[in-house]
Amino acid sequence: MDINYLALLPEIILSLFGVLVMLAVPFAPAKMQTRLAYPALLGLLLAGAAALAFPVSAVQEGMLFHDQFGTFCKLLFFFSSSAVVLVSISYLDGMGLRKGEFYALVLFATVGMSLMANSADLIMTFLGLEILSIATYVLAGFRRQDIKSGEAALKYFILGSLSTAFLLYGIAFLYGATGTTKYAGMVEAVSVSTDRIVALFLGLGLLVVGFGFKAALVPFHVWTPDVYEGAPVPVTAHLAVSSKAAAFLALVRILYQVLPQLSTNWQTVFWMSAFLTMALGNIVALTQNNIKRMLAYSSIAHAGYLLLGIVANNREGLQAILFYLVSYALMTLGAFGVVQLVGREDEKSVAIEDYAGLGHRHPYLAAALSVFLISLAGIPATAGFMGKLFLFSAAIESQMYWLVLVAVLTSAIGLYYYLRVIVFMYMRESQTGQLEITVPTPAALAIAIMLAGTVYLGIFPGTFLRLAGEAARF
Amino acid sequence: MAETPYSITILLLIPAVASLLTLLIPASRVSAPKWTALIATTATFVWSAMLFVQFDPNSPSMQFTQTVRWFEVGGFNVRYQVGMDGISLLLVLLTTFLMPLAVLSSWTIDRHLKAYMASMLALEVGMLGVFVSLDLILFYVFWEVMLIPMYFLIGVWGGERRIYAAVKFFIYTAAASLLMLAGIIVLYYASGADSFDLLEITERLAQGRVILSPVTEFLLFLAFFIAFAVKVPIFPFHTWLPDAHVEAPTAGSVILAGVLLKMGGYGLLRFCLPLFPKASLAFGPVIAVLAIIGIIYGALVAMVQPDVKKLVAYSSVSHLGLVVLGIFAFNHVSIEGATYQMLNHGVSTGALFALVGMIYDRRHTREISRFGGLAHSMPVYSALFMIMLLSSIGLPGLNGFVGEFLILQGTFLSSTVYAAFAVSTMVLSAVYMLWMYQRVFLGNITSEENRIVRDVNFREVAILLPLVAVAVWMGVQSGTFLRKMDVSVQNVIERVESAREQQIFRVENRGY
Predict the structure, then answer these.
(1) Residues near A446 by Cβ (< 8 Å), separated by ≥ 6?
(2) Does the pTM exceed 0.80?
């Protein structure tokens, strides 16, 4: 079988750079370890350029797709991984964790995500998921001396392995039902006969468990707050954005492309999950005092909004999911970027109280965080609002009125906890005195890009929405 | 000056650009932000006054319209579409008129002045945007965006319980508006229009090209109505108002009372009545009763307030109850009166809040019992206070009378019972206002602090005189303003009238 290496070029570049970074680690002096971020960045940039340079020719048969949807996903992953790399430089320096493996792991995780979202075969999906997972298990425990980080890694690993087992079991059922693991073959098998419907349902259900875990959908979300709290902030950002997006996109591809015949069934499942995810995420976020935990629950809530797009089961829904993922990446990465800087060495200040008076001491950081929070809350003139508008609109087009009502009410709850941080930053005086926060250039650059993107998408969403629309077809 | 399609865009751009400029002023230029804000708001006022003169009162269509494609993807077509009819014109004028005065009344603010003035200017953009938007999404964007600067104004520069008040204000209004967002999208799909153009959707519904099922219409009406009812506020959605008003800084209260509350009334006139006339008619009696409860309840609660600012805040609940009653009496006179009364309330209550702020600056208290005999020590202040107070309670010759009279006359035409209850506002407002005046200004000076308190200074007179002048002008020459809105009010009422006729027709048909 011919292999189209050009189509695979982004993943090849990333893997090569990952290996290069790995090889450089033993030879680089401690001071230079975090400088390895720059080759990693270069790799991500080149991979992005490769993804753009070789436009989609024909859909490739075999293990991987090569289509617009996949390119969109790849670029999203490369973008968010670059942001993670940028903010992690000063973080690792500050923590005394001068280990270049970090960047290699981020690159490998990115390869995994890219394979997952482009996979044309369940085996490849599984492989991608494993590449992603193993890298992130290690990343979650990267602060080895910290007990919480260790706890996060262990919890994530144990629960993650369990969910992977579910996924694999689901793949087995689907194979049993259709006689193939290839998406194309499965589509055919499902359309020809549905006499193995039970196996098909079981397979789908188990698949949902596996992906639901990665995407932190209720009721598979229980690991999220602990892991997000314990993991180093850049890793938390990576988990909350890229890893979640990868699971979502892989799931979307399977649902829309492989199992559209079962749409009435999975719509019901995701309807309930969306309801629970939005409600639980928003309500529990209300009571959080640690900003990382708060953002963890908020990320659960946002997964719920994203599910609106799946439940809508129309092209607008898919388009809205893609647009929303971009907005979500911008605002969440931006928020975590600020959280990381405010947290300083050893993440000393991650309680919401620590943000008191930030607005007066660090007006730029506070203003940036305010924009990200306002965007997360879905107030207009930000990307978050536009994203919600499109998701709601898609769901309403499919007449999911009740679900939109739930989304509206839970968004209203969300206003409170996002505003709470702003209240602390601007309306309360600091109790602990002056905190000196240094803002290193790479992190500042990342935050500035996220800020510009959040505002740009909030005011001029047209271009990106069109791109998302073009990508939203299989 | 030739009419350009950019008239309204310029109106929005002046404060928007000024808001950004204010943020760029270096910290060493201490008083530059307030001058920037004053000049920008005055320029906006002058510009809107020119639009007021240019506005053709005989044309039934929107004027100064401009349409630019904003984003258009698939069936999703959102435009930057702005324009004004008589109702929006007057509310725009009210906004631009109050803004320089609000800036002047914030002259003594020294904490984070730059951010304060930038917020004020951003607030103006939002408010003006609400009144001129003709695209539903654009409208919603302005409607929500405006909350953020107001939230900061209350939360950062407010009184003791400012955080509670700011959060409550934000959550109440934003939560209610989210329902409206869902309503907007449902309306868009239900109307089958190819954009969020308000005029097109209204026309499609009016011509009967699309007929909403009664249930849809009722639910949509409610989704919009609740957002507006919270803003007005209509009893029982009013509980955020006393908190927000009392805790907001003086200029914040002036703008809250003067303009923000009007956005609710404007929404009812622009959206609820023309889009959902049948539901409006059906809910009319319920809303009228709520409005009457608001009128009486607001007045009674105002009567027992120990705090002057709270008293004025509750008087707003009462006065706006009257406005809502006027809107839901569904006739030309009452709606014209309601619109006029919104303007009056903006002027007189805005002035009262400014006045209360002045005394608070001097004495750092607003408790009625701490005052007495101020008329001796502050004769000019007391006189100006008296004029605005009389304007608020509707003394003939001042603006309040015209509005109240029109509303009551219109309501009487629709329902004598409602009118009978509503008339109580005349009596009750006189009671709480005059009683307050007596306790604060008349009698003997009871304490030394009240004896040595300074009278108004030049800046404060500069704030109050325009307000007094406008109150008199609107009371004597109401035609200047009423003429501009005549045709637009007729437009609103025609939609309701035709729906009413259809209903009567249907009922008659059923009879035979």
Answers:
(1) A83, A86, A87, A333, A334, A337
(2) yes
